[in-house]
TrEMBL record:
Protein name: DNA helicase-4
Record-level Gene Ontology MF annotations: 3'-5' DNA helicase activity; ATP binding; DNA binding; hydrolase activity
Domain UvrD-like helicase ATP-binding: 194-559
GO cellular component: cytosol
Binding site for ATP: 215-222
Pfam families: Helicase_IV_N, UvrD-helicase
Claim: Nucleotide-binding is one of the keywords in the record: yes
Keywords: ATP-binding, Helicase, Hydrolase, Nucleotide-binding
Signal peptide region: none
Biological processes, Gene Ontology terms: recombinational repair
InterPro entries listed in its UniProt record: DNA_helicase_UvrD/REP (IPR000212), Helicase_IV_N (IPR022161), P-loop_NTPase (IPR027417), UvrD-like_ATP-bd (IPR014016)
Length: 751
């Protein structure tokens, strides 16, 4: 059947098509310049309209495209339209059967997946999401037509639910499964020191090959990590039938626990002891240095020892101070250089004669020597790691080196501009004077040599060398990662080298599982930035489309008020991942009975600001109400800022346990009460510019754009250690600028 525009119609319509012919499953439109076939499966709808004089047939195609034929005689148009409707309906009826089967098949596939009595790994979910997209793309007519068919609408509704709420449904499925497992194995979970909350259970039971768990201070990350280790080993005991055998039974040797450094390792040790699980206590727990050392031992026949000074900060600082003092007393030029440098750079008052033995100087040197030397020790290895990373990036993005450098330079410029906007003083931003860098290198060279000699005398290896060599060992073709599960705590503190090593282990792991726990607000290492959290997320992924980040939902250390205060404080820096104010949810939730059963949380109930002269008074009061053996943390930027009188008066409050730690060693530390010292704006002021030497400016990454970003994190960590109360002790005349700010957020002021 053919419908043609009339001569006058053609002339008035000025349209590309003058004729339409009905085909078996479509229509053909033709005009003087083009002919176009429109198949029924392209058409969303069509209509027949009557204009003032002429008829018109219009077809709506997908994506709201319209094609029409104008200028046809009205009666003929109606006849053609009626026949078109008949053909279209017959075709649609026939095709509906296929479409229904197509959608039903997809529903069956979803049901099969969601009815699985097991953890649904994310890769399955991603596969399903892709399948769903394809389902709609491969329908025999445009998706917009689904609503016309009642039979399809219902199927479509079910599919759409999965398409739009897939993530929630996926989590729901896994949560429900987790609840079931928790009930089935209630006897086992009751052995834990706490009843885990649903988000912790999720982390414990999940079976993803790689997951990054984020959570703020006290959200129970380390606890969940140890609970997971215990659960993994328990499966070995049971060889459960009810679980899909995604995990083969595990032996303790298959699991490696990791923490960023000695303080966080000690904390993890403490937590695992509370679990009272002999096998968990036997699990390998290593710092990156120990991991590198272990890998080297496995792959090399040389005699090698762990360097004695690396795991004990106190001993290391003591050794460095003694070595520095020895160098000063035996090498006059060395002592002269240091005398000039300390008096010029720091404006310290240096006495004539043996200044290095002066208690006032000596007390300030240990921590500083350790910090300065560390930058030099890691210099070469960091450069190697950075080069490796740049090569990796380049091969990934096939960026020209010029473009890469240009973008880095523009980042630096941008950061500098921001820094200026934030009133960061110019001296902190100026490129270090090269002559000064060389002079400082000379200053440290004898100390660095003494350090290397000591390592040699112990037949040991330094951390950066160990990490670089381990990286090479892991990179060898034959290397296979020996652990099936690597559970990593305080991941935010892992150095670039350590992270590269883990990356290597991941690449060489056949079907291994990696769990990373991190909090960007707790980055204490100078030079590590919170922007790195995005890198951590990238590293935790196996494939780019995966989203393996999971957040813990509760807070066990801080009360909602304190949580709000500390979060407001850290969130001032827009580069930190914004922390929502979480509260303990004691009400029944849709996740069942777990939330109700949460143990009564221990809550920090106050942060006080007080002039430091009140300290003895406060301690007396504290001793009156603190339970016996309470842990009392004393912390400051430098330990010597803690008044001596307190250290010597430990015997005055014998029933309290005192811990002394500088801010940068507070990873994972937990106390009942915390006293923070040195909050002043003079001398060793806080916050301070930590890059106070030319070498530091030269070797450390560029400063973060937000003013005092690093010190803000130190303060945040110090304030979030205590389960009960924190006192921020400040100078009465010149308090730290943070004090005023915190008072504004609700810290309680003691006059
Ligand atoms: N489910 C729970 N019920 C009760 N208390 C818990 C629970 N989980 C953890 N805790 C307690 O909460 C405190 C904080 O836990 P944990 O150290 O695991 O948190 P975290 O997130 O690792 O903290 P941080 O990041 O500050 O190191 C600890 O005292 C721990 O014993």
């Amino acid at each position: 059947m053919i419908l043609k525009a009339t001569l006058l119609g053609k002339h008035l319509a000025q349209h590309p098509f003058h004729q339409i012919q009905l085909l078996d499953a479509g229509v053909e439109l033709s005009g003087p310049k083009e002919t176009r076939i429109i198949a029924f499966n392209q058409i969303v709808s069509f209509s027949c309209k009557r204009g003032l004089i002429w008829g018109e047939i219009e077809f709506i195609l997908s994506h709201e495209n319209a094609i029409s034929l104008h200028g046809t005689e009205w009666q003929a148009t109606v006849q053609f339209y009626d026949q078109l409707v008949i053909n279209w309906q017959e075709w649609s009826k026939d095709i509906l059967v296929h479409a229904t089967k197509h959608l039903e098949k997809q529903i069956l596939s979803i049901n099969a997946l969601s009815n699985r009595d097991c953890w649904l790994p994310q890769k399955e979910f991603i596969r399903l999401a892709k399948e769903l997209d394809n389902t709609y793309e491969s329908l025999p007519f445009p998706e917009e037509r689904i609503g016309e068919f009642k039979a399809l609408s219902e199927l479509d509704y079910l599919l759409q639910q999965w398409q739009h709420e897939g993530i929630e449904r996926w989590h729901e499925h896994n949560n429900e499964w987790a609840i079931k497992i928790r009930h089935t194995h209630a006897n086992f979970f009751e052995r834990f020191p706490f009843i885990l909350d649903p988000s912790q259970f999720y982390v414990v039971l999940q079976q993803e090959p790689s997951m990054l768990v984020l959570g703020s201070a006290g959200s129970g990350k380390s606890t969940a990590l140890i609970a997971r280790a215990s659960w993994l080993l328990y499966q070995h005991e049971l060889a459960l039938d009810t679980l899909q055998p995604l995990f083969l039974p595990l032996l303790p040797d298959d699991i490696l626990l990791m923490a960023a450094d000695s303080p966080s390792k000690q904390r993890l040790e403490l937590i695992r002891r509370t679990f009272n699980d002999r096998t968990v206590n036997q699990l390998d727990l290593k710092t990156p240095y120990e991991l590198a050392f272990y890998l080297l031992k496995q792959t090399s026949k040389k005699t090698l020892n762990l360097f004695s000074l690396l795991n004990d900060t106190e001993e290391r600082e003591k050794w460095l101070l003694q070595t520095w003092q020895h160098l000063c007393s035996t090498k006059k030029p060395f002592a002269k250089l240091w005398r000039n440098w300390l008096s010029n750079q720091y404006e310290w008052e240096i006495i004539a004669g043996d200044f290095w033995l002066e208690p006032d100087i000596a007390i300030r040197m240990g921590a500083r020597l350790d910090r300065w030397l560390k930058h030099l020790r890691f210099e070469k290895a960091n450069k190697t790691a950075n080069d490796a990373l740049i090569v990796l990036e380049k091969s990934k993005q096939s960026h020209s080196s010029a473009a890469h450098e240009a973008s880095q330079q523009s980042d630096i410029n941008e950061k500098n501009e921001l820094a200026v906007a934030n009133d960061i003083p110019d001296h902190a931003l100026l490129a270090p004077d090269e002559a000064q860098v060389i002079a400082e290198r000379k200053l440290f060279a004898p100390l660095l040599k003494a350090w290397k000699d000591k390592i040699k005398s112990e037949q040991a290896i330094d951390e950066p060398d160990a990490l670089i060599q381990a990286l090479k060992a892991v990179g060898r073709a034959k290397f296979v990662t020996p652990w099936r599960h690597i559970l990593i705590d305080t991941y935010q503190e892992f150095s670039l080298l350590a992270r590269l090593l883990l990356k290597g282990l991941k690449e060489k792991s056949a079907g291994g599982h990696f769990l990373y726990c991190a909090d960007d607000a707790q980055i204490l290492t100078v030079g590590q930035t919170p922007a790195g959290i995005d890198e951590l997320i990238e590293e935790a992924k196996l494939k780019p489309e995966e989203n393996v980040v999971y957040e813990l939902e509760h807070d066990y250390r801080l009360s909602p008020d304190i949580r709000k205060l500390t979060d407001t404080f850290i969130n001032q820096n827009p580069n930190q991942q914004i922390k929502p104010y979480l509260v303990i949810d004691d009400k029944p939730s849709k996740l069942g009975a777990f939330a109700v059963k949460l143990m009564a949380p221990k809550h920090q109930n106050a942060i006080y600001t007080s002039p430091d002269i009140n300290v003895l008074d406060l301690l007396d009061k504290l001793s009156g109400f603190a339970p016996k053996s309470s842990q009392v943390l004393f912390t400051a930027q430098y330990l010597y800022q803690i008044p001596e009188i307190i250290i010597s008066l430990k015997s005055r409050w014998p029933h309290l346990n005192f811990i002394f730690k500088p801010f940068n060693q507070l990873h994972g530390v937990e106390s009942d009460f915390t006293f923070v010292f040195g909050l002043q704006q003079f001398g060793d002021s806080f916050p301070a510019f930590i890059r106070d030497t030319a070498l530091e400016k030269h070797l450390l990454p560029i400063m973060e754009s937000f003013l005092d970003a690093e010190m803000r994190r130190w303060m945040y960590v110090a304030m979030t250690r205590a389960k009960y109360s924190t006192w921020l002790l400040h100078d009465i005349e010149k308090p730290s600028i943070f004090i005023n700010e915190l008072n504004g957020y609700g810290a309680k002021q003691i006059k």
